[in-house]
Amino acid sequence: MSNVFGEILRVATFGESHGPAIGAVLDGVPPGLHLDLRFVQRELDRRRPGTSDLVSARRERDRVRVLSGVFEGVTTGAPICLVIGSRDARPVDYEPLRDRFRPGHGDWTWWAKYGVRDWRGGGRLSGRETAARVAAGAIAKLLLGPLGVDVAAQVIEIAGIAAVRRDAAVAARSPLCCGDLRAAARMATAIRRAKAAGDSVGGIVEVVATGVPPGWGDPVFGKLDARLGGALLSIGAVKAVEFGDGFALARMRGSEANDPLTPRGPASNHAGGILGGISDGAPIVARVAIKPTSTIDIEQDTIDVGGRPARIRARGRHDPCIAPRIVPVAEAMVALVLADAALRQEALRAFSPPVP
Amino acid sequence: MSNVFGEILRVATFGESHGPAIGAVLDGVPPGLHLDLRFVQRELDRRRPGTSDLVSARRERDRVRVLSGVFEGVTTGAPICLVIGSRDARPVDYEPLRDRFRPGHGDWTWWAKYGVRDWRGGGRLSGRETAARVAAGAIAKLLLGPLGVDVAAQVIEIAGIAAVRRDAAVAARSPLCCGDLRAAARMATAIRRAKAAGDSVGGIVEVVATGVPPGWGDPVFGKLDARLGGALLSIGAVKAVEFGDGFALARMRGSEANDPLTPRGPASNHAGGILGGISDGAPIVARVAIKPTSTIDIEQDTIDVGGRPARIRARGRHDPCIAPRIVPVAEAMVALVLADAALRQEALRAFSPPVP
Amino acid sequence: MSNVFGEILRVATFGESHGPAIGAVLDGVPPGLHLDLRFVQRELDRRRPGTSDLVSARRERDRVRVLSGVFEGVTTGAPICLVIGSRDARPVDYEPLRDRFRPGHGDWTWWAKYGVRDWRGGGRLSGRETAARVAAGAIAKLLLGPLGVDVAAQVIEIAGIAAVRRDAAVAARSPLCCGDLRAAARMATAIRRAKAAGDSVGGIVEVVATGVPPGWGDPVFGKLDARLGGALLSIGAVKAVEFGDGFALARMRGSEANDPLTPRGPASNHAGGILGGISDGAPIVARVAIKPTSTIDIEQDTIDVGGRPARIRARGRHDPCIAPRIVPVAEAMVALVLADAALRQEALRAFSPPVP
Amino acid sequence: MSNVFGEILRVATFGESHGPAIGAVLDGVPPGLHLDLRFVQRELDRRRPGTSDLVSARRERDRVRVLSGVFEGVTTGAPICLVIGSRDARPVDYEPLRDRFRPGHGDWTWWAKYGVRDWRGGGRLSGRETAARVAAGAIAKLLLGPLGVDVAAQVIEIAGIAAVRRDAAVAARSPLCCGDLRAAARMATAIRRAKAAGDSVGGIVEVVATGVPPGWGDPVFGKLDARLGGALLSIGAVKAVEFGDGFALARMRGSEANDPLTPRGPASNHAGGILGGISDGAPIVARVAIKPTSTIDIEQDTIDVGGRPARIRARGRHDPCIAPRIVPVAEAMVALVLADAALRQEALRAFSPPVP
């Protein structure tokens, strides 16, 4: 159940960092959708490593291949299997990690849970797993597009340096996926400095979904923010999520926090586009905190597979800051949740009285 | 799907604010558990309204009744239905809300979604719904107890006033569920002041689960923090959640954020007890931001059911600050997620090689 | 998971034979449906015991009460809790069964599974559990009605006596739910004869759903016949199910078995209205085999709770033939599966190209 | 949801008849299992076409490849992706079926449902889809083996010719998977005769699972027979299923049908190893009816994609009788259901009082 996501649009992912391939099977994609494979590939290219000195040096072409569910370029209603082969697997880099666990990483908890592990590059816990999410999320975006829904994320803080501007066009061209050129320059410096010290830094990513009509999401356990929050927290390294004004709402009064309603929708957006777990027509705004990469080139205390004290220092090809590479992944998870919510809502609508 | 929660331990809840009853059906509770009904009742009493001038004046005895699944005081493996009757329903209080929507409340989004609504006290969107969660969570706590797992929450901030101490014994006796007497006194003043102004305030609740062994939770989509986060965000008024150092991790370096591993477990707890989505043996620590109650006694802009501009001012019996009453609800949701994770882990263990 | 059924329309049932109440929670019922409670009650009356000498003498009024999800007679989108109180519980009748297991009954397997049991009247394994299914199924029928779908079952065989005619109007008035008056008379004689001998007989029930449009159901694991078959086999005492010509198809040639297609739909109906797991527009026809009631007034070999050999003879108020009382239950399960399929199909349709 | 199966052990399958590959992703396989790939391959070889003149002439090597979830030959707890490439795809054979639907086949209902179809060899509705089930089922068998559970099926009837003997060793070597050599010879003749006439025949397959301990399966909706029945009915061409004496039970008296209980388990097995939906320790016995292959070389009435009357005659490489090839598929589905039930039961057991 751990590797299957969604209710009506259901995604199963698979694959380890240094296995032959990773991929996803999407069940529940409506038929008749033109599957624009170039778009899927472009989305994958956005999270690919090896593109600048600010991210991991691992080089993967991340070519996606469709094994099923598409006929003459169009989805048929059958499950879609997407596979991405791995090329630049260098498990030898990880030999030193074979019998010791990286602090701050899932290495040890996986071992505690399963008693067996693929130690090569984190195995299933590797960030490489997210390529399958991005491929699946691209299909969700293709579903959402005709509904007028757009999902876009950007880095808004790295190493404590906050972006002031949030220019989407700037973010799209920025290696740090940041919409503020000036802040991005300072962030780059901070990342390089941390990298030089063998260390890493964290950041904050903001995702905004526009065009979601009122009425998506469900009350009680299926609240849209609950589902989005769970989806975003399922991304490795994400340790916090907030909607709208988030933690700042805890310090407001009701009279400040409430978004007045107008015939054209909410007049402000403290709530981040969701009230009572249901979209209110305003943009959906979520922010996630990303911890600094746990794999660092600094010696730390740890234990080995025998439970004995040990020291560890990792020299692999790691991202000194994972935040920019989480941007497309966060978009993918939000798109998957929204597409699922859209399909659920359509199921209701067919039987319901017209909303006034 | 919206009102069913969990995978192996599955809870379905039902009931509206001013309907005849609310309740929960728990499926998957293992047999042979002594169902201590007094404990369940005590948990319900903790979230009951009408207990001080700081919370809603609605008076409900919230007596829980067991309709099934228990025989001679012991669970049988059959589903357990818990029902809590409503007595002090005063729908007349809500007449003014019949055709207008409260800003900041789910009133309007429910209407936009369903086109039909029970306008009495928020219907299904009322905080009263959480009584069913607390009753179900009490049973989860009874399951977790013998495993040595304890779940306890407290208010750590209200109206911007932060608790310095976190004394559980103090919190247990505090009407504000706050473990810092001095801070609690200031919080009470802030609440009364907001109430006098017809306004409301928000706060922060921290939940800590101790005794969770390493190995609970699942990788990828079923991460323990993803499930806990989704569960906590499904509570009305919760708009943000963070684990361990949460948003502060975004500003740390890896060398600070990583918890060194020792033969006795993690030496620090920046991660909040979860790594790679799997518990690491340290206490699980989550914090949630609670927005100020949206129903306030101040006139606000809104729309009516015809979509026309209107003004609204709510005079019902509302909590000027909902944070203290969320304390047992947050505990309940965490207990439900953990009990489910425990059952999942046991299913794996029976087939697995012994962990060294 | 055992007591929750369905995907989009999800039903959780609860209750034991001699507990205070049984009931169901339905999640996913679309809003705006007029909930005709008299219809639900009439459906329950159809399966009520104590109505003739051919069924159990237990007398239950089986009054259904709605605890949630309905406002001013209309569904709101919130979960609907239906509760049916028990009155004529006479657990004392079952005292002799307290420490011995009835052969052919789930008494022993429940004990083997759970190690705890409510021995009063079979507890959760009692046929009384099906009242909750019938109540839930009635709501599914209310959903299907406006779509032109009708679900009707009748007894077509008891004690080896087969009905020749299948007159629905006759069946509706027959205490044996049989559409062939002449056969019904012979069935009644066979039942009385078995009863006089302390024994019981089995039978066959046929369910027909008319008006299902082509396109309901899903390929592969979610085939409509797989879902219907699983649903029907979940009814106690049902040990076999067949669709269309069923087992007889195994003896046909393809040229006989294939239903020719015409512009107005299939020209015959060997397939029972389902091809490739998807409805083909012809009536859906399913038959279930019902074993003779296991509780009989004849001494049999068994074991006691200590695993020691014992003898048992049950004198409670049992149905000498359960087939007629399964008629409304089979309809309910088929209606629940079809309503769920209808909702799933609508979710797809909203995104799909128009079918030529 | 249509292509995902199981609860704790969850399988997602994908792939079309003439696409590049078919496969399965298994989530929830416990770690530490030696994945004997040669065994998986042998199971696949059992359902492979092209092995005799009695089955389809299509030649596929059906080589299975593991893309994930296994490290150094052992499962890690990560999802296992199995892929089987297709070689002998000859879509050109199906050109005549491009715009006309085969009677008795899902061709038309898929079209009615989705409005888009992969017409090459039935696309997703092809029997080739079952290779993924067999591969997944092989892993379920590897899980069940150490628990002492064995699942074996054989053909017991073809074209109305019933096997008298059920010798498993004979069945294993028989091209018709039949345990009665003499009957098998007559069946072969009947198949060849039908084939010569361009026609097809049906049959009956019996699956027996031995070694299942008492206590697997769940009451109410999750009955073991409900789950097994649903799983078996999800196999294309299966139109009926019965457990134990099945339809014959409808003609027995309770005193005949009840299996007396002894300290060593049930003394007979009319119930087919399941009582009240829970295994009773006796062998689980299920039989499925398989309709004659719908694709025949005889002209039939049908419609074209424009809904106009047409004639069709199929000349592809079809099985004149699909029953023998369903043998490993039926075993796979039973093994998947049982492995899932085993995992569910273990989850309960860890928390339950010891069963006496």
Give an overview of the whole structure:
- The structure is a homotetramer of 356-residue chains.
- The first copy, chain A, is an alpha+beta fold and 356 residues long.
- Chain A has a single domain (4-351), classed as 4-Layer Sandwich (Chorismate synthase, AroC fold).
- Helices cover 27% and strands 21% of the residues of chain A.
- The first copy, chain A, is built from 8 helices and 18 strands.
- Chain A has helices spanning 37-47, 107-114, 130-144, 168-173, 181-196, 224-233, 254-257, 323-349, and strands at residues 4-5, 10-14, 21-27, 64-66, 70-71, 74-75, 80-85, 150-158, 161-162, 203-210, 238-243, 261-262, 265-266, 274-275, 278-279, 284-290, 300-303, 309-312.
- In chain A, helix 1 packs across helix 3 (130-144), helix 3 packs across helix 8 (323-349) and helix 6 (224-233) runs antiparallel to helix 8.
- Chain A starts with a strand and ends in a 7-residue tail after the last helix.
- The model of chain A has no long low-confidence stretch (mean pLDDT 93).
- Chains in contact: A-B, A-C, A-D, B-C, B-D, C-D.
- The B-C interface holds B 1-4, 7-8, 10, 12-16, 19-23, 25, 27-28, 31-32, 65, 67-69, 71, 74-81, 83, 110, 113-118, 123-124 and C 1-4, 7-8, 10, 12-16, 19-23, 25, 27-28, 31-32, 65, 67-69, 71, 74-81, 83, 110, 113-118, 123-124.
- Strand 11 (238-243) of chain C pairs antiparallel with strand 11 of chain D, so a sheet runs across the interface.
Salient structural properties:
alpha+beta, 356 residues, homotetramer
